[in-house]
Each structure stands twice: as C-alpha cells, then as structure tokens.
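Hi, here's the filled form for the chain we discussed.

Project: internal
Contact: R.S.
Residues: 248
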Amino acid sequence: MALTAKTGVPAGRLTLVAVVAFTGELSIGWCNDAFDAARDAAAGRTDKPIATGTVSRRAVAVAGVVTLVATLAGGFVIGVATGLVNLAMMAAGWAYNAGVKSTAASGLAYVVGFGLIPVFATSVTPGHPGPGGWTVAAAATLGVGAHFANVLPDLQADRVTGVRGLPQRVAALPRGDLLVRVIALVLLVAASAMIALAPGRSGGWPAVAGFTLAVLLALVAAVARGRGPFLAALGIAALDVVLFVALT
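And the returned structure, exactly as it came back:
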C-alpha cells in the first residue's frame, strides 16, 4: 500500500488497491485458520478462534473464499497486469496454507508472495514500469527470512502436529533450532543490505543507519535466550519493511 502510494496514483485508485490488499490478507489468514483447525486444536492454541470453539471452521472457510473472490475481482478491476500479479500472490498464499507449508518447498511460497509485492505496487501505474531486480530480490529474501523467523516460537508444536516445511526440516538436523535462528537472521540482514546498499541507490545516512541497526539486532539475537531471538528477528523484519518503503 505504501509503495503504491509513492507512485502517485489517484486517490480513488489507491483506495481500490488498499481494498484488494486488505481482502487478500484476510483471505490468506482465514484460509490458514480453516486449513490448520485440527493442528491448532491438537497444539492447544488458545489464540485461534476455531480451536477454542468461538467460531466454526465452516464459517471461517466461507469467509476465506468470499474474500478471495473479492480480492481477485478487485485486482482485475484495477487492470489485467495487477489482476494477474495478485492472482499469483494469492495462489502462493493459498497453496502454502493448503499443504505446501508441510513440504520442503514451503519457502518458495514466500519467495513468490513477497517477491511480487513490489511488482504489484508498480503494476497499478500507467505503463506498468517494473521494479528493479535488486528490489524484487530483496523482497523475496525478506520473505524467506520472515518464514524462518516466524516458525521460531512454534518449532516444538510443529514437531507435535507434523508440520514439515523447510525450516522444520532444518530444525530436525543436529543443532537444528540454532541453525533455523541463524538462517533467519542471515536472510533478514541480507535483505537489509540489498534494500539499503543496493548498487545505484543513494539512501544516504538513513540507509546506513538502518543497516547498522539491523546488524545490531542480529547480534542481540545471537546471544539472546527464550523469545529474544524471535523478537529480534521480528525487529529486523519490521526495519526491513520500513527501509523498503522509504528507500524504494
């Protein structure tokens, strides 16, 4: 949304982009809860409404489908290019929730879903000027780094429920939990470097300061205990998003 706003599109078109992005996020989130209802119940997830019986799995599944139709329709109303990019992003998200998350290809869904964000942002402008290769690579790297960081608090529950995505398979190796943490941090810091220090980009002191902060957070995560590494990784991911919007 913020990336699209920087392209200078009219307010009405920007509002429609916001609706497409919002309904897309709702659809992916709701379909995830519907697909994972049994796993969440087995893991005792009290933060999941279906697992606690607050709402039915059917209702959440229907909501996911309705918002899917809404986001896809809205994308094609904006334009064919935007509609096709949005379709690819939604396909990646739904495929991940439907089962790819339990395969070694789980990271690919994040490569597609995050890597296409800058493409989606520029697709709404006249002529559809594509983003630079470094921008797409940074977004994809950020996505995979976020994928590894996101599983850090849930590795034990994933072992119980049988989720066998790429990070979980890495976690099954000797010293695997530590390896997952290291990979998450390396990828997130690499994304910071690509965003802040990409060739031809003059971000000035904000870029240098942002990258330095990312490195410091990575050092904190390297020595932290408990949820510290996860929170530090989230901090780097959030910083990457800010840098991405500010410098792209």
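Let me know if anything looks off before we file it.
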